[in-house]
Amino acid sequence: MDMQNDFDRILFFEHARKTAEVTYAKDPLDAENLTRWGGALLELAQFQNVPDSKKMILDGISKLEEALLVHPKKHDTLWCLGNAFTSFAFLTPDQDEAKESFDKAAVYLQQAVDEDPENEIYRKSLEVASKAPELHAEIHKHGLAQQTMGAAPASGPSTSSSAKGSKKKKDDDLKYDIFGWVILAVGIVAWVGFAKSQMPPPPPTPPR
């Protein structure tokens, strides 16, 4: 079932990416489209191996930065960009390099909150980002980043029967949940934005 859901998501966001690419050719200054494009790339990145994921995230970042050149205070773009840098940092083993990305993420997420202070998701993202460097150190300390990107918590019974092994699995699941939440949240924005773009225009107002 999960594999089918993943396949459906890949198809959806690949279609969103291609649609955004076509739209960009017609109107390169459409900030909404650039944001959808960047969000779709971030969502697709989770299904790649680490090197390809990083390339796709960087591509997504470039699209989001391009959107900000058109609309510097677009809060959903700022938020996506913050999550993109957070995701990239988690895939970067070197702590100094990762810190640069975490710092950029914090700046963009704070700007998103400043532009839309009532948005609970933005505030939650900023809160999670503040804990991200510590989580990054733990993940790379245990070599977890060399496994899957962790868009979903680990499934199946624990191979260890000891309480310690069970606790470690729960800790690992929590780490995957947090990272997965970041990617999923970005995906939701891309999904909603794409769905809105596919809606038929409202009927014309009847003449009075």
The amount of helix comes to over 70%
**Biggest sheet record:** none
The name of the CATH architecture of the domain at 1-72 is Alpha Horseshoe
- Could you list the spans in which at least 5 consecutive residues all have pLDDT below 50? 145-178, 190-208
Strand content: under 5%
What's the order of the H and E elements? HHHHHHH
Any idea what the shape is? globular
Question: Count of helices?
Answer: 7
Structural category: mainly alpha
As for the CATH topology of the domain at 1-72, it is Serine Threonine Protein Phosphatase 5, Tetratricopeptide repeat
- In whole angstroms, how far apart are the ends? 53 Å
What Rg is obtained from the alpha carbons, in whole angstroms? 18 Å
CATH superfamily of the domain at 1-72: Tetratricopeptide repeat domain
Average pLDDT reading: 75
What's the count of strands?
Answer: 0
CATH class division of the domain at 1-72: Mainly Alpha
Protein name: Mitochondrial import receptor subunit TOM20
Subcellular location: Mitochondrion outer membrane
Keywords: Membrane, Mitochondrion, Mitochondrion outer membrane, Protein transport, Transmembrane, Transmembrane helix, Transport
Transmembrane segments: 174-194
